[in-house]
C-alpha cells in the first residue's frame, strides 16, 4: 500500500501528522475542562492556534467531555457571530437552548427561526436583526446566548468548555465589547473559555493593559513557534514512516527556509514529499527546488497582491530593498542613507507605507520592532521577480533571516 502525504495544509492533522505542541495541547485540555477558567492565546499568523483548538476539542469530545468550538473568522457582525455560536452550541445543549434563545431574540427585537439541515437532519438556528434594530449592536445577543448556556448548565450541574477562535473581532463591532465581555466572564461559573486570535495589538489592548476592564481577568498566554529541533525530527520521522526517507540535512533545510510559521514549514514539507517519488530521498538541493516550485504555484496570487500596492507610494520599493538584503532585520529603512540611496522619498511617507505593508501582511514586525517578510514564499517571489527592476541579480535562496 502506498502511504499518503503526511503533511497537511488546511486540514486537521490527526495522530502523528500533528506535530509536537504536547504542552500546549495538555494546557488547552485542562483549561477546557476546568469550570470557570478563562485564557486567551495569541500569536502570529499560521503558527497553529486554530489547529490546536480543533485538536483539543476533537480529543476531549472523543473522551466524552462537553466542548464546543466557535470560529468567528468569517463573521462580519455580532449578529453573524451569534448564529455561529448557536450552531456550535446547539448539539451540546439540545432543543431547550433553542427555546431559550427564542426568548432572548424576542427581548432584543431579533427574528429567530430554526431550519433543518437537509443532509444531517440537525437543527440550524438562525437569528436576524429586525430592520429597525439594524443600527444597534447585536453583542448583547451574542453574550446572551452564553448567559443562557451558563444558566442551564448550572441548573443541571454540568460544565461546558468553549473555545472561541478569532474572538477579538467582537471589538470591531462594539466599542464597549471589553466591558460586556468582563460582565459575562465574571458571571459564568459553569463555562470555561479558551479564546484565540492573531490580531496581536488588538488582543494586547483588550486584555493586557491596565486601562482595560479585562486586565487580570483573563490569563494571557503567548503562542510561539514550534522549536526548530522538534520540527526537524518530526519531518525526518514522518518522511521515513511514509516511505520517502530524506537525509537529516534536508530536513534541517526545510526548517531553515520556512521557519517560524508552522504552516510554511508544513507546506514546504508537503511539496518535498510530493517531489520524492520512488527514487532516492531528496537532499537539500531537492528542498530548494521544491521551494521554488511552491513560489511558482503562488506566483499568480502574489503578483496580484503586488499589483494591489500603490504605485505612487514607496510600498513596492520598500519590498525590493528588504528582499535584496541577506537579513531584512538589519536594514535601517528610515536612515538618511537608505532613503537617499533607494529614492524612497520623505521619511513620514515611508513610515506610513511600512504600516500598510504590515497591515496587508507583506511584512511582519519582530518583538524588537525589526521588519521581516511575513511569508518566505512572497519574499522569494520579490527576489526572483522585482530585483531586476533595480538591475540586481536574484540572490541565493536563504532562510528568512539570511
Ligand atoms: N501542530 C501542527 N502539526 C502539523 N501541522 C500544523 C500544526 N499546527 C499548524 N499546522 C499547519 O499550519 C496550518 C495553519 O495552522 P492554523 O490555521 O492552526 O494557524 P493559526 O495560528 O490559527 O493561523 P491564523 O492566525 O492565520 O488563523 C494548518 O493548516 C496546518 O497545515
Ligand atoms: Mg487561526
What can you tell me about this protein's structure?
The protein folds into 3 domains: 21-95 and 135-222, Rossmann fold (3-Layer(aba) Sandwich), CATH 3.40.50; 228-303, Helicase, Ruva Protein, domain 3 (Orthogonal Bundle), CATH 1.10.8; 309-390, Arc Repressor Mutant, subunit A. The longest helix has 30 residues, at 78-107. It starts with 21 loop residues before the first helix and ends in a 17-residue tail after the last helix. The protein has 402 residues and is α/β, with parallel strands linked by helices. It is 50% helix and 12% strand. The mean pLDDT is 89. The site of adenosine-5'-triphosphate (ATP) has 18 residues, from helix 2 and helix 10.
List the helices and strands and how they pair.
Blueprint (H helix, E strand, L loop, with lengths): L21 H11 L5 E5 L6 H14 L4 E5 L6 H30 L2 E7 L6 E7 L9 H18 L3 E6 L4 H4 L3 H11 L3 E7 L2 H8 L11 E4 L5 H14 L6 H11 L3 H15 L7 H24 L7 H10 L11 H6 L5 H13 L3 E3 L5 E3 L2 H10 L17
Parallel strand pairs: 1-6, 1-7, 2-5, 5-6
Antiparallel strand pairs: 3-4, 8-9
Helix pairs in contact: 1-2, 3-4, 4-6, 8-9, 9-10, 9-11, 10-11, 11-15, 12-15
The protein binds adenosine-5'-triphosphate and magnesium ion.
